[in-house]
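Below is a concrete protein record.
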Amino acid sequence: MRHDVLIVGAGPTGMVLALWLAKMGVSVRIISKASGPGTASRALAVHARTLEFYAQAGLAEAVVTEGFQVGGVNLWVGGERQAHVALDETGARYTRYPFLHIYPQDRHEALLAERLQAAGVTIEWNTTLVGFEETADGVIAHLTLPDGREETAEAAWVAGCDGASSTVRKVLGIGFPGGTYEQTFYVADVEAKGPPMNGELNIDLDSADFLAIFPLDAGARARLIGTVRETDAEAGQMTFEDVNRKAVESLKIEVTKVNWFSHYRVHHRVVDRFRKGRAFLLGDAAHIHSPAGGQGMNTGIGDAVNLAWKLKAVVKGEADARLLDTYEEERIAFARKLVGTTDEVFSLATSDGNLARFVRTRILPVVAPFAARIELLREWVFRTVSQLEIDYRGDFLSEGEAGRVRGGDRLPWLDLGEGRSNYDGFGDFSWHVHVYGYAGHLLEDWCRANGVPLWIFPWQTDFEDAGLARDAVYLVRPDTYVASAAHAASTEALDDYFRIKGLKLPLV
């Protein structure tokens, strides 16, 4: 059987891509060389932007209910808490999810697999991609099945969501430049007592050994993510006792039980290309970096959401194939920026150099308490870490400006009261037009004739605070980014946008 999309890899990135495509009526086949969903809770953090995407697919409520909400972040230097940021206060005007959400990856993957099954897609575990070649209208993939038999599979497109050692990337011959951090990362799930066991995220920047303490509940359990320098003779031999005293002594943490401990080296790399012919790279197959900011899994999910609606449009004949070029354009720029930023921040936090140590131990204790009280700075940090700040300004699909909102921006989220928001209608994965104020009959007729949902929100002064312009027309993409922003309700401009971008009307 020929499928529209063959997805290689069934971690969160691959499963989100499969789920989004299935919900949009695209035929998918998803395989994984793993024996089943992960049993180790590697990635923990689910950021606000990911939860917004999950709300579109009816996933957010389950994730939020099952996980643990972190409402604040603390910065420790010299054994003392130097700064505190309340996330729920900082982010409440930007999103329905103003917190850092802890949801262990093993439970996360199990939920995604369950929802995929309900959508009629069965993950084929213990199935390995050996290689593939491109044809005039698709790809022919060579698979090894669980019983050792070989099979040839056909698909129109292939998506490599198969991790840092991606077979898809190797078959394509795409470079993966970057480097490896000198430090060894360790991860420990512990039960403990002490001041940082407060149900919030705690970060210690005292020494060159970085340590972040992610709560797993309100105070009894936590995950320690830290770094330590190993000699060649010590490589692969580390135990928790080797890092316990140095890593947690200054924070007065008393570890009573270690439930899981692992250590590994981390790379920082971005591929040269996110697409080659009929194949795409997503998630760790395309970019890897320090785990300290909890960005990796969320970035891979963002890749999947960005590509899914574009693949659907091309598969269903709603757009020219050139739409798929915008996946690389939009996501590779962000990946390079993210890897560069996390590398710089992590290097400063872990450097043995005199300047870096002076900044951490002398400058930060003085500056951090004042910086944490600056509202604009707190909000910027929240928007950046939660990935609400990602935009595609200046890219092919992004046009215009109205108010402070430009084409390529994430549509500002608005609390409309009584549990309602302007994001409530995006569950159909379609294009939408938003007007805050008066729309007019011409625009209403155009939207009706072209199958584009029109949302008209009576004007409120709070909308201007969010950057929106009164009576402006915002054309919103299926992933809730603004495609076009214009002050005048010109239906000709909307026609031109769809024609120039290779998108076909009416939408069906």
